[in-house]
């Protein structure tokens, strides 16, 4: 999956992306949007839902709800120059009002889908994973969508020789 935001400037000049998922907001402050992807005008947020001592989590522990809260705050901060400090999608707007602010390209106006990234063993029964349950509850609370994937399995499938792929 490719980011629609690459090195350069996002439409509307709200933030500039840099390699490694770092971005600078309108004030030049660094924000980390590395787990955020924009696809078909929807935001996909990949959330870690597995334990692995070989892969260090930035906060020292796997806590998907905290990760979701941080990403939402970063999107709000990105939009702060435009609105009053809460997700734009949470404001009840008439259709003509939505059209009037569309040119602002607010991240927090876009629909969000949270992507629970699990191990291969959790893929068959993701609801048994407490982290996935946490992401599902957060998605429901935030009126967002949610899907479960295993990036590990996807990476392994991507490396298969063409003749071994099954369609």
Automatic annotation (TrEMBL):
* UniProt xrefs under SUPFAM superfamilies: P-loop containing nucleoside triphosphate hydrolases
Q: Which residues form a coiled coil?
A: none
Q: Name one GO cellular component term.
A: cytoplasm
The source's domain of life comes to: Eukaryota
> Per UniProt, what is one GO molecular function of this protein?
ATP hydrolysis activity
Q: Where is this region: Disordered?
A: 1-26
Q: What is the lineage of its organism?
A: Eukaryota, Viridiplantae, Streptophyta, Embryophyta, Tracheophyta
Output this protein's name.
Uncharacterized protein
